[in-house]
Batch of 2 targets.
Target 1
Amino acid sequence: MDSVSVSLREAFGEKLVKIGEKNDKVIVLDADVGASTRSSYFRERFPKRFLNVGISEQDMMGIAAGLAIEGFIPVATGFAMFLLRAWEQIRNTISRDNLNVKIVATHAGLSDYADGSSHQCLEDIALMRILPNMNVLVPSDSVSVRSLLEQIIVLKGPCYMRIGRDYSPKVYTAEEDVIFGKPNILEEGDDVTIVACGIMVHFALETRRILLEDNIRAQVVDLHTIKPLNKDLLRYCERTDKVVTFEEHNVLGGMGSAVCELLSEKGFKIKRFGIMDIFGESSRDYIGLLQKFELDENSLAKRVKSFVEGDSIES
Amino acid sequence: MDSVSVSLREAFGEKLVKIGEKNDKVIVLDADVGASTRSSYFRERFPKRFLNVGISEQDMMGIAAGLAIEGFIPVATGFAMFLLRAWEQIRNTISRDNLNVKIVATHAGLSDYADGSSHQCLEDIALMRILPNMNVLVPSDSVSVRSLLEQIIVLKGPCYMRIGRDYSPKVYTAEEDVIFGKPNILEEGDDVTIVACGIMVHFALETRRILLEDNIRAQVVDLHTIKPLNKDLLRYCERTDKVVTFEEHNVLGGMGSAVCELLSEKGFKIKRFGIMDIFGESSRDYIGLLQKFELDENSLAKRVKSFVEGDSIES
Amino acid sequence: MEKALNRNQKLILSSVSRNLNYTASAFLRKLSKESGIPLSTLKLNLKILKEEGLVEYGRVGEPRPIKLTEVGKIVLELLDYRENVNDIGDCEKSVLEEDYRELLSKIRSKIVFEIYQAKMGHLPSSLSSANIIAAIFQVFKPNVTESKNSFILSKGHAAPALYAVMAQHGILDDYELAFLCSPGSRLQGHPDKRFLQEVIVSTGSLGQGLSVGVGIAIGKKLKNVEGKVVVLLGDGELEEGQIWEAAMSASANNLDNLIAIIDRNFYQMNGATEEVKMLEPLSSKWKSFGWDVIEVDGRKIDELVYILREIEKHQKKPTAIIAFTERNGGIEHIDRKAFYYIPTYVEYVRIWREQIG
Amino acid sequence: MEKALNRNQKLILSSVSRNLNYTASAFLRKLSKESGIPLSTLKLNLKILKEEGLVEYGRVGEPRPIKLTEVGKIVLELLDYRENVNDIGDCEKSVLEEDYRELLSKIRSKIVFEIYQAKMGHLPSSLSSANIIAAIFQVFKPNVTESKNSFILSKGHAAPALYAVMAQHGILDDYELAFLCSPGSRLQGHPDKRFLQEVIVSTGSLGQGLSVGVGIAIGKKLKNVEGKVVVLLGDGELEEGQIWEAAMSASANNLDNLIAIIDRNFYQMNGATEEVKMLEPLSSKWKSFGWDVIEVDGRKIDELVYILREIEKHQKKPTAIIAFTERNGGIEHIDRKAFYYIPTYVEYVRIWREQIG
Ligand SMILES: Cc1ncc(C[n+]2csc(CCOP(=O)(O)OP(=O)(O)O)c2C)c(N)n1
Ligand SMILES: Cc1ncc(C[n+]2csc(CCOP(=O)(O)OP(=O)(O)O)c2C)c(N)n1
Ligand SMILES: [Mg+2]
Ligand SMILES: [Mg+2]
């Protein structure tokens, strides 16, 4: 389970080329970070269908809107943090007019560990999921990236897909196992449900392993599609007493919050794990940074255990 | 209770002048909507401490940051929707550096009923409350506007205050009753707790009145300070079985979501009422629009009743 | 309100104005007999007209004569003179090549009508743009399915002017002009594609239209199709940085199919542009961003039409037209410094008379 | 990592390099005797040095001789030559008025050192700006408490250059340069005020610094205080529309205390600026936005210093300096088209030798 698969952005860049081969309506837009997002692979293969609009994220979203109006399928790529520079444009043009623009944001969460707080995006799930018409996806590994990218290209309507930079422990082996809109139960268990997205799915599986040593059996759900939010999740959660959420995002407003909203009418006990409403910082390695924010499997196992056993030390 | 007090933006504009008289560090910034936000009153009184930076919201937030660095207390004003054009600037400069900038956003919610979906801001509570260091306030009437404005000016750190345009039924009589950070229990009751903010507090009180006819006794809490979120709210909610939230905002990510997050560990049953994840539209009157979105007291009473009585028709 | 008045409704409306002192049911019986239209059909349509506030009549047990409401009268007035100019789509034919005065009067009256009805909407900003939008539609007939040209009203608050021109071109029915900002109306406060498809992209938040125009222009080039993309910008709107991002993108991509028209009325919402942010030297700005620039008297529609036709034939680069206008559209007693202005009934009638005499 | 090396730590470091084959405790006893510093004090400091990876030694039951780590050696190297130029703050004295060559070599070496240590950070972009930042600090000594001048590194990815110059001016200790991007280090990947106060405003997201500069400049005027605000921009960064919003604000507010320096190296992250977005005619752009413009060879620090001193005396308007640079900072074998470049050990040593020889 813990063998690292191909990097997330590599998977994205390569799959994009494959999609481009089959679908000539796909146009890729970049705001001068193509080498980093790996959208550059598409540029190399289809220079005419690739546009580096420069360091102008707002303009990029407007151009994407225009291309969608003309019947193309624009894929607007960039670092998650800087795409949010264009939040209002995404809101007022793309989302409001329900335009067929696919936004793929890389370097999300803490994955851009070196660059520090200006680059580490911990807010995008919140900002995107509250937009009407927007579909929001957070694939958990490179297999999911490929699978979901393929699916959103054919979907009509705006999509936001969030991926990290490289680190991507293997969660899936087959692309068919990841279906847009369908949460995946990866492990069964009846003491607690862990709902996770992104690379936190890997950490959820590892956490489960550690909890088993204490005889706590966790059900693990990969919520790769955060919007539309599938109500089956409610049913899945009913199998356990308590629910926890893992995400590489501020604990406010993100996936955990979406889960709270969905389950709120039913009186579940839920605890969210993520970044505790502070900014990121630089680090020379990713795992070290996750540890610092207590999002590694050992910290998580300890935190979940204490929640399951009822003494909520932290709150 | 239902007598309409002075308009929200009038209260804001007038109070701002009073504050300016006492505190010469206060500088007011405007992005060319001063006549509408009523920050123009400040301009008339203190032309040298007022700056219309033009239709450049991003630049305005940067300038505000610079003024704060120089020791001033900049108040950056504008329509809620267009201030969000500068979300990333607010995030990466103001909130990250914990700068002493006060953002006051008018025309929030549906209150700019004529202008339609491009102007009706249903996302700002979500976007602001997930920013570390940011204080988020939604005063419920003109008395609260005055009171909270005065309080945030002396507070150190960034603040976002959200107000509507005009409509402002009276909730409070004395400014002393509204204290930053402290949720207000306006009415007691033991069947359901209504947590509300903004003008929805008025509608919560009206809803309570209607529910009483059905022998449902609602506790009404004004959650004017959404961040920092006072944990006393948890205690207040414990008095009733069920909790509902009223807000003039997308039901995703906003105040209701914050309440879900706070109460999530305890297994409350919560239902959120707001705009059901769609965009606004034009109307010739405000109340009509609220009715269309089922946010008037009659619709709300019906919806709360059905939740309290356990048959959740809607979900 | 998604649809315009149908034939039967128009008939009812004009008959009501000629038939006084009938109760609703007596009126309908009479009309049915005269026209041969089934009573039930007429009944249904009358009910719709009442719901939309165009006619009023009594009810069972409380009979009152049927009559037009204030709005109903104005809608009828509009319908009437539209008949005179030979109905939808044909409007162009009736306009002499060099004499757009009548056309403009009609458009201006429609704008005033919309705003008087709604008691909201931005009259000065709409009047400022009326000529320009009229000229654009005259030359490019954009946004309808058959058209190869696209138009974006980036200064979305001039929506009433857009709607008036659209009505003039039969894209909207005149009747709908009475319903600016009404719930469910296609005429939202700002152009909204969810309600009105011909608005190709929703606007209202300033500074975004030019980027969308760049995207459409690139799209047309990728598809190898002809057609111009015209974007109308406010001068104050140029203070949004996104405009300059888009301006750079346009020249970097050699968009010789993109035209930006700047409604240069020297005022923004809260002051004069030169006092707020100093836009001059405006033409140098555009030139330094790689655009061709043409300055034109934006009060003269014939000049605008002429220039647009020239550009259509000879464009080599993205082209900015700086159109000098006045925010009162030439209606003297409206203050061109003011941003908000809702006419009273007296003013309304006065303007209406002045314009269509 | 909030503090620099203290006197005792420096002493330990240099003694270790001279004393081979001691175990840690033997070494400490010897040093304590020689220096008169209490053993417990030395012990504590040695422990800190070990935690920070500068020295290594064995543990109880597993004795190994104490020695400097790779990093420790380099830090010591840096400390040593700093001693030679007469320590913190005095660096200026040692620099002949017209001969900044040595100064620049040191700054460049420090930049390379930082990035070699961290194996991350943007070397070419930092080298490109090194001269400019050095000149700004030479003339304005900004951001420290006593200074009336402010400097914003809007192109925040040149942080290593800023840190190197700050170390040169004693704002940072050279020792800290080994810790770029380390958790808790004051030297974050991009200048971060939360970690380093002298960074007056955090950057990293391009296009925001000029607006903040405008705000500070307005603030200084409101307070009626002297002082310049200098903002360093990348050329690619000028593609952000916010820059042009700020440019307009600066001229509208007559900010004769605001200087923007454009690091004109003709490359951005993914290509040449003229291929991506076409910035030329760049000087016309700034002029048309109401700025005075000066072009200068940004590879010559004496020219930069001269121009800045002139502007300091005679500025009348917001002034843009277009400084023509190269993204390799003159180090020939680094490709100035590349955005990413991490030197290998061999390259590192080579550059180091070339620079401080
Ligand atoms: C992004 C944004 N900011 C602010 C507004 C509010 N607003 C509407 S119109 C207007 C003034 C526009 O001035 P100008 O572009 O000169 O248009 P004019 O009415 O003069 O034609 C403003 C500030 C808006 N609609 N969008
Ligand atoms: C808003 C934003 N968008 C994108 C980036 C990613 N980025 C960092 S540096 C850079 C290129 C900068 O080019 P330039 O301004 O010319 O600086 P140079 O390195 O050449 O000095 C980009 C696109 C960023 N930091 N911020
Ligand atoms: Mg104007
Ligand atoms: Mg460059």
Note: Residues 8-22 of chain A form the longest helix (15 residues).
Target 2
Amino acid sequence: MKKADLSVQVGKLKFRNPVLLASGTVGYGNEMSEFIDLNSIGGIVTKSLSLKPRKGNPPQRIVETPAGMLNAIGLQNVGVEEFIKEKIPFLKKFNVPLICNIAASTYEEYVECTKILTREDAITAFEINVSCPNVKEGGLQFGNDVKAVGKITAGVKAVTNKPIIIKLSPNVSYISHFAKVVKEEGGDAVSAINTLVGTAFNIITRKPKIHNVNGGLSGPAIKPIALAKVLEIKQSVDIPIIGIGGIMNWQDVIEFMIAGSSAIQLGTVNFIDPYAAVTIIKGLEDFCMKQGIEKISELTGSYII
Amino acid sequence: MKKADLSVQVGKLKFRNPVLLASGTVGYGNEMSEFIDLNSIGGIVTKSLSLKPRKGNPPQRIVETPAGMLNAIGLQNVGVEEFIKEKIPFLKKFNVPLICNIAASTYEEYVECTKILTREDAITAFEINVSCPNVKEGGLQFGNDVKAVGKITAGVKAVTNKPIIIKLSPNVSYISHFAKVVKEEGGDAVSAINTLVGTAFNIITRKPKIHNVNGGLSGPAIKPIALAKVLEIKQSVDIPIIGIGGIMNWQDVIEFMIAGSSAIQLGTVNFIDPYAAVTIIKGLEDFCMKQGIEKISELTGSYII
Amino acid sequence: MFITKAPVEKVIELKNHIFILKIFAPEIASIIKPGEFLNVKVCDSNFPLLRRPFSVCDVEGDFIFLMFNIFGEGTKILANKHKGDLIDLLGPLGKGFNIEGDYDTAILVAGGLGVAPFPYFIRKIGNSKKIHSFIGGKTDKDIITYRMKNITISTDDGSLGIKGNVVELLEQNIEKLKSERIKIFACGPNAMLRKLRELCIRHNLNCEASIECAMACGFGICQGCPIESVNYPDKYLLVCKNGPVFNIRDVVI
Amino acid sequence: MFITKAPVEKVIELKNHIFILKIFAPEIASIIKPGEFLNVKVCDSNFPLLRRPFSVCDVEGDFIFLMFNIFGEGTKILANKHKGDLIDLLGPLGKGFNIEGDYDTAILVAGGLGVAPFPYFIRKIGNSKKIHSFIGGKTDKDIITYRMKNITISTDDGSLGIKGNVVELLEQNIEKLKSERIKIFACGPNAMLRKLRELCIRHNLNCEASIECAMACGFGICQGCPIESVNYPDKYLLVCKNGPVFNIRDVVI
Ligand SMILES: Cc1cc2nc3c(=O)[nH]c(=O)nc-3n(C[C@H](O)[C@H](O)[C@H](O)COP(=O)(O)OP(=O)(O)OC[C@H]3O[C@@H](n4cnc5c(N)ncnc54)[C@H](O)[C@@H]3O)c2cc1C
Ligand SMILES: Cc1cc2nc3c(=O)[nH]c(=O)nc-3n(C[C@H](O)[C@H](O)[C@H](O)COP(=O)(O)OP(=O)(O)OC[C@H]3O[C@@H](n4cnc5c(N)ncnc54)[C@H](O)[C@@H]3O)c2cc1C
Ligand SMILES: Cc1cc2nc3c(=O)[nH]c(=O)nc-3n(C[C@H](O)[C@H](O)[C@H](O)COP(=O)(O)O)c2cc1C
Ligand SMILES: Cc1cc2nc3c(=O)[nH]c(=O)nc-3n(C[C@H](O)[C@H](O)[C@H](O)COP(=O)(O)O)c2cc1C
Ligand code: FES
Ligand code: FES
């Protein structure tokens, strides 16, 4: 039997398969490369970068919840300068599309980061995180404000020729309104979803379990919500979607593609099984063969409603 | 040792303990009464009623998800008339506060239902469901529209002297904006949260697993989100909150009270363990004794942040 | 209708992936009827969250038997139980088969795991009626004959018995069978029951069928298990309360 | 650093709620060092979702030992394993104890389950150094002496050994101990380590401590396990990568 074609197109971006690794769940690739061949995966999205290094939130940063976890890392990152000096040289050794995720506190910072980083040939595209719920100065505000998201999209587009993916917040009434403004302002794709705002308390001390009070909920618990958000976007806006949220196995990937995703990202599962991407890609291959699906991209938005 | 005082006050409403049973998860009480003594629980919220009977959605209506479930019952209910004739006489036999949940497709229907039902002495209060995500004509619209929620609150308040609790949707950017308008329009309390919009697909048929496409996510998976919504309301609006979402045990109840709830409702857990309410009340009693908490109501909003 | 935590006595593997759980549950054993079911919490944790419904397969003294195949997460956990493990049972639930009545031969029609409720049915009917069992499956691997009586078999691939589905098998025999007063009792996948329903209408046969569907509570509070009623088209019946056994003509499968 | 599914050889209950798992894991046994840890998936399902970190307690040939108490859902599942069950281990992880060095006596300070890494430590150090173990717990029920050497005990309630906490116990003995070249190796709750840190600073003692905190990945990609560094106040260290064993003065506990 002929092998299925797993390659997918997300706007101008081409990936050898739809399985990317999500921002904040692969570091800068070093550790993951000890488990898997990064060249075998669709792409890698680096931890959110800000202009200057960020120390991040004090502990405790994570807490487990039923079929999920809350995190409030607070965008700990090395900053643009060290990223270019220390991290890119390592990542350059691989032949894997490198998507650089940017998070900032101001509109100007988003633009400035993109402007500096666009000079790096190793970077294939940008994913703009307008939706991190764990940074107090601004993150959440942007993600919940259609106008701000539009302005940021236009702003970063203006300073780079590389594709721009806007990572959307699920903590809104209608995520499709945000996808729409991204499209209008020239964004190339959206990724959905980032984490959902959640919290947990210690019942003896009455303090939040997470230092930051709120954290972002990820993992299988949020999968049904993420799928509904992807479907909402697919049904109302014509823009490529990278699906994210609770994906644990190849079956979940198929579900996200049927709902409208052109590609997907693995997040929390990497913590539990760093081999997951490879296992999943194999599973997709077998499924396509068995079902006689020649190109996996046929699945995108193939729901029957 | 003296027994702890479990009674709580939600605005004008007084409950013997904070454990109520949530709408849509206790039917009209008949079946639950075969398991537990309804007189021992804080209160009972009946399945959403509409003016006329509703057939509800075709199967499949439910699907399990990681630590949760999706439902799209479609507000199957007997209608106001049969409720008064057939259901109230049964419920009257118990000495338990009866909260009648109303769901409607139009503003007028909400008001009309309340007007008819307010004559029934057996009804202690109304819970207005502005947030059911499974009814196509209107449910979701109302729940996502601050003005509509304000108008409905004022409308039902005008036709009854009984306390009005507005049940809020979590599928919004800022749930506190809705709590605020409820307070402004004279609502007595809010309950939070209803289910989150979610979906699931069959990867072979590519059809949604639920006939209605989207369903409402409930169960432990949503607990961290529900807690964050309760906290958001508590921190910004001075209105009593009934906490709902993924409560499985007494520890969860304490967490919801610390986050700001004056009382709570049990939903999905009733399907798995119809004795849960009784077990939980016992657990609360023991916890208060052990911790030297004289009145459980002290816990409400007692978070240390 | 109550919850009991009952100890497993034995886990029996009948065939590859098909198991019987023998459980010490005297309170249930003493009252449950054929065709009624239990809603089973397979473990203490929240995963899987919901109970799983299983027909009572047989009752022997204080012991009840459940028959199941490994289908998903829940049945996998059940298959891995050990003697002494406690299983959380909610039941007895639903409306079972109406065994009494004006007929001489009970025709049992089972598709795959659909044999599950019939050992107990056969035990209860004793010698009061004759029994004829028609059992169908995809291949011989799916044919379960555990404690069944007077068996005729069909398989889709012809690997055992007659080639074809069990409703076709029944139809081939129906004229012969109709010489007596018969009543059909059926359990199996919806696709099979749908065909059986047509057959019963065509031949004007009396038939009770046990119907499966997704359930959350199993006792009537979630409204998650609707089934279209022929007689009351403006409301659904609930499989868990009004069924799972229905007169096959009364419902739209 | 790799994943292996290793069969349980034996589950040993040391005391009420305190267990040892003996696991056949030759690849790990051959390379892991004292103080390093494994991140363990306690079951195949999503519940509990995250791995649980456990120090390697001992190594004997191809077998590794983990010591734990039943704390929550995950350790409950581990305690119920049977011989032959496969356990999913990710490791070896972290930076362990630095056994080598210019000292004559290793002072082991353990609070409760904090003894866990020391049997392997003692095995590895062999006869190259002297050992003195100080073990503390709330009551005698919490005192574990499994494979420990030259033990002095304290309990908060005085039910075994000296009444008081283990750092007080150490302090009572410190002048005597300081007559030799000593190095302290510690493991236990943060409250204990915080006190120990003060003691070490006061007495200018060399001390390595294994520190616990919530972890998601255990290998450096989630940034979930920060610890404040004394030398680099503008960034956090990661307990899972830079630790779990730190020079006790280098970190703010
Ligand atoms: C009244 C009744 C009696 C039954 N008796 C038996 C029996 O005796 N032996 C047996 O092997 N099986 C029986 N079943 C089916 C049995 O409940 C399922 O096989 C079981 O739920 C599978 O669980 P799982 O966790 O292994 O599978 P999973 O697929 O992981 O989970 C099953 C989930 O799917 C849902 N679901 C969706 N469609 C259906 C459906 N048609 N039937 C059941 N669940 C569905 C369930 O609600 C449950 O949440 C019966 C079902 C019903 C309704
Ligand atoms: C490097 C390291 C080595 C360890 N070695 C051992 C050992 O040898 N023996 C032993 O019994 N225990 C050890 N622990 C602690 C052990 O990981 C926890 O006891 C275990 O996670 C409890 O799991 P549970 O599911 O039973 O408890 P639960 O309370 O149900 O779950 C534990 C959850 O709490 C989180 N958590 C919060 N705070 C902490 C914390 N301070 N430490 C660990 N997890 C936390 C975890 O991330 C996990 O998600 C070690 C911890 C670390 C970090
Ligand atoms: C520990 C952790 C850190 C994360 N950090 C980032 C981040 O820096 N930037 C970002 O855009 N998303 C971040 N995310 C969100 C993930 O990329 C992903 O959107 C989310 O976790 C949902 O996917 P999952 O359920 O598969 O984990 C983080 C998630 C986790 C769990
Ligand atoms: C099967 C089902 C039916 C429900 N029906 C209603 C309803 O009719 N009206 C309503 O206001 N909420 C309804 N709910 C929502 C619950 O009352 C509750 O808000 C929600 O399930 C979250 O709580 P839980 O996680 O404890 O289940 C329903 C929930 C479920 C699971
Ligand atoms: S399964 Fe809940 S009503 Fe039937
Ligand atoms: S636990 Fe993930 S970085 Fe340390």
Note: The interface with chain C takes residues 24-27, 30-32, 34-35, 47, 53, 55-64, 66-69, 71, 73, 76, 219-220, 248, 268, 270-275 of chain B (CB under 8 Å).
